[in-house]
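User: Show me sequence and structure for the first protein, then do the same for the second.

Assistant: Starting with the first protein.
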Amino acid sequence: MKITRALISVSDKTGIAKFARTLEKQGVDIISTGGTAELLRKEKIPVREISNFTSFPEVLDGRVKTLHPRVHGGLLYKRGNPKHEAEAKECGFQPIDMVVVNLYPFEKTIQKPDVTLAEAIENIDIGGPSMIRSAAKNYESVTVVVDPADYDTVLENMRENKGETTLKLREHLAIKAFIKTSDYDRMIGNYLNREQITEASFSLSLPLVTKLRYGENPHQNAALYGDFERHFEKLHGKELSFNNILDISAATNLIAEFSQPTVAILKHTNPCGVGSDVDLRKAWEKAFATDKQAPFGGIIICNRAVDEPLAKTISEIFSEVIIAPEFETEARALLQKKKNLRLIRLTTSASEARSAVDLRSVCSGVLVQDSDIAIEKPEQVVTQRKPTKKEMEAMLFGWRVVKHVKSNAIVYAAADRTLGIGAGQMSRVDASRIAIWKAEEAGLSLRGSAVASDAFFPFPDGLIAAAEAGATCAIQPGGSVRDKEVIAAADERKMAMIFTGVRHFRH
């Protein structure tokens, strides 16, 4: 069926005049509303106001204009169905063969820092989604266009089919339309859920990025959803696995903590070592020295471009993935010789790539929380001795890392590197013992180091173990009923200690 009549009503007016002019040249009768009609008239494109088409004025400050039987009847009646055709004729429904609609900018509105609830509600589109859904339901006869990016495709399809669109295209556009209205309603619901007193539900819709070969293990099906590919570009290597993606995410969250040139090595989402230096190769050497066994088959991330000297150094061990904002030509050529190595370019800042929401699946449900991206400036000295400048730098370095280590987490650090990391233990003192043991295995001295704990020391034993290992200062959240005992133990050993007041559990 040739397209003879189109209803155009858009908030995003990108490309709409060119699109409408082409339709008009093909003899399409154009109906429009408000600002869209005004724009088309300025462009000398013949247009009928919606009120002329419905014989009913726009009322309630424009809240009611397309919510009319002549609009939805013209969209919904089944072409070729004798009963529908007769009723449409009796009711005066003129067929609308195409709807071109995009919605009020609700998302942009709620992103404004000073937006009010009333302003947000006024930007909830009602007529637009209604027309989109009516047109999409009757896609056998009606073409629905919700994305300016599809204008050229639609016009080309019409040119190739003597003013008609193909059923295949209409099906594709209808699916896209239903996803659009679903996402729009979900966004409104989530916003009101935050702003209103009553909590209703949480919903999320993400586009499929890719099906994965398998999940955490080969017997598990898996897929990646969202806009992961907006932040990460694979330059070389095999397709990413489920576990690769988890590690890339963990590595990106960690590197976002550092502004100075830094290299981090991770395995199973836990840091093996982190080092900072203006010479990125030296930063690598500091990170690698923390643990020379665990990095085999691990993930390496840098927050500066990888040059040839660094590439030569890190290519000496087998790694699954290397992530960096850029790879210099010589470095990339060298690393691409390893066919099993995946090179990933971080196309945005690490901070931008981090998700604001953390989702965890649980039995028959989902836990939702804000991501742990809190940035605090720990300054509460609770011991008799204040930390030196060097000790303070070491504590802050360890504090940036420990929040990314599985709890219970202990990190021993210098001002520019990790020295020992203990992760995921049931007892905090055991995490400390493992960190000490790892440092000994690596041949690193903990004398003069800082110890960072993701949560408070429940007993003095963890702090005492750190002091005996050589730590001279400690950083921890505080908040234990035995804080006084822990502080006393630190004072007895002439240690400096800071309470942050912020805990960083990572389960």
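Switching to the second protein now.
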Amino acid sequence: MLTVELIRRGARYCAERRAVLFEDKALTFAAVDELSNRFAHVLARNGIGRGGRLAILANNSLYSVPVDFGCVKAGAARTPLNARLSMDEHEHMLRETGARVVIYDSELAERAEALAARVPGLTMLGLGSTRCGRDLLVEAASAPASDPRTPAEPDDVILTIFTSGTTGRLKAAEHTQASYAAVSNNTSINLPDIQPDDVMLHAASLFHASGCFVLPYWIRGAATAVLARFEPSEFLQAIAKYRATSIHVVPTMLAILLAHPEIESADMSSIRSIVYGASPMPLPVIKRAIELWGPRFIQYYGQTEAPLFIARLDQQDHAGPERRLLACGRPSIDCEIRLIDDKGNDVPAGEQGEIALRAPFAMKGYFSAPDLNAAMFVEGGWLRTRDVGRFDEDGYLYLVDRTSDMIITGGYNVYPREVEDALLAHPSVFECAVVGAPHEKWVESVTAFVVLRPGKTVSEAELIEFTRERLATYKVPKAVRFIEQIPMSAVGKVLRRALRDPLWKDASS
């Protein structure tokens, strides 16, 4: 099955039903279908057809789903530009992929204008904006409403999404017409039965993990309600306003909601399932949530390279023994999992090993990275995750550690080396090491240990502000600790665990 065909079938079966809800506006399935056709024709006019590459710099809006579907119908590979990333990161993503068109919204017009100045030759298409190019909505109004019927094959790339992955540098996982259709199928079989009257509420970006739920709801005739951003009061009000039956959150969002003064009185009566993932869930947070709302929760363990349900912890598991809340869940029915050693061999039963998977929803590979692909794929089509796990006697998968030193803060991946490079650019910094410290809201907070150059001084606030000018906001250290010496191994490798473990010693599992 191709992704584009799932889009067509959903539109054909459910034409007059409401498909997308945003503020006080709504689009029917037929309207989304027609608008996506028009967007695809505009892209074709601008040289973006089958095999073309473009980038999307936009927050959630009424147009998120039509834009997404329009790219698929055009046969183009879209690259989401996370609005929280830095200018340098956005520029790298555009140059790396060779994207020639950028679709942007009015809220991000200033960044779009700056990118256009940095990367010559870009065609800028605004969603209701002409600040640095033409207005896509105006262009679409005069474009054909008919489906362009661009030829499509299972292996055609339709999504190139950047992730820091295993090395700390940005690289792009690629998904195809076939693999993204498999993502939809994977999500469908791991959610409670989706009904035509269901509404899933989204505040996280639809151009990332949250977007994986759109197509499964679309093909069942259910609706997608969209918020421009996550603000707890607005989110709670929107649940009641749209009579949402399901919400998608990351652990940080759930922790913020539970701490909100209106949480006890919020109308959650319409909610049948609360889906969460993207980073480990702190045990106190999920226990409090279950006390408040009961076991309506579903956890997914996935990654950009294999979205979305590698393993699932379902609603029954959330009603079970407390130890189960620490698990990722059991492998998805359409995903094979092995635990392997560094040579790619299976580890003995009961031992921990690197999680490797084989599934139809796994990525095609990393864009333009043959050496990395060779390292990440094991013979037989198995994909390494770089996560270390173990199975218990009941077949539940538990994450033990990461093979890298990645920090997950608020659902976002941060790699220490990138933050360290920013700190080392300061003239007063001699050495530094960055680790994740426990945090009740963000799960982990970026924490820097710094050794100053002899005779130099700088304050914690000054260093934090210095890195803020060079990094995305979620990568900026929340704390800087000044020490005399960075612990090193006998071969000169930074012993991050010696810095990290004391921070976690008294924290909850």
